[in-house]
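The following block was generated as part of the benchmark described in Methods. Ligand: zinc ion.
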Amino acid sequence: MYIAVKCPRCGELMLANTDNRTRSCQRCGHRAELRTLRVIGRAGTPADAVELMKRLKEKEGPGADYKPGFKHIG
Ligand SMILES: [Zn+2]
């Protein structure tokens, strides 16, 4: 499973594979233990993970409306 988390040091949004115990931030290099991070979103497949990150980044953008709930596919 994939989870979307935020770097505790710089706040960078990043995707982590739960098979791993730690994730290094691509922006500041800080390595954090996944279980200590707040999970923002989850995805079961790489394709879902990409979609998830896209949505989260859009949400963070200036002036973007927050739309709760997930889009149902199929
Ligand atoms: Zn960072």
